[in-house]
């Protein structure tokens, strides 16, 4: 029996990924630089990937837009700024395109992590993901460039994303277990004193 996250990952690859450019343009127009569109899209993907079920979703594009809009609103809220009361100086601060040092380090670590997971995939699967997700080629362009059918591209993107999500979830779980073990050891050490 197929696990729920496999179903959700396949649904995201099939129903959501093709709309990314439309939602990107929509976010750029709606938020006019007040949010980092890449961050908002990433957050929207995280939210969609963590869904327990997709059966209630009738219009994937509309759902993707709602998820992206909610992520954008949360991003603005995390800056502790009220959109309505923002001054011109505040807008200048929001429009600063330079990420913080902490953000740059986090991004570099996350990129390295994703790169290691991608390296573990087959060459075809890795190239499909790179061409579709990093270079932004269409499914047809990716198929032409690699000399494979569009069905093979679709199957590899689904399989690849599923493996990447599973590998990252496993890594997160292991990190969480390490933290739990360290906390248990710390508590145990304190009790023995």
UniProtKB/TrEMBL annotation:
Pfam families reported for this sequence: Sigma70_r4_2 (PF08281)
Keyword Transcription regulation included in the entry's annotation: yes
Region of interest: Disordered: 171-193
Database matches in InterPro entries: RNA_pol_sigma-70-like, RNA_pol_sigma-70_dom, RNA_pol_sigma70_r4_t2, RNA_pol_sigma_r2, RNA_pol_sigma_r3/r4-like, WH-like_DNA-bd_sf
Domain RNA polymerase sigma factor 70 region 4 type intervals: 113-163
Keywords: Sigma factor, Transcription, Transcription regulation
NCBIfam families per UniProt: sigma70-ECF
UniProt similarity note: Belongs to the sigma-70 factor family. ECF subfamily.
Protein name, entry field: Sigma-70 family RNA polymerase sigma factor
Lineage: Bacteria, Pseudomonadati, Pseudomonadota, Alphaproteobacteria, Sphingomonadales
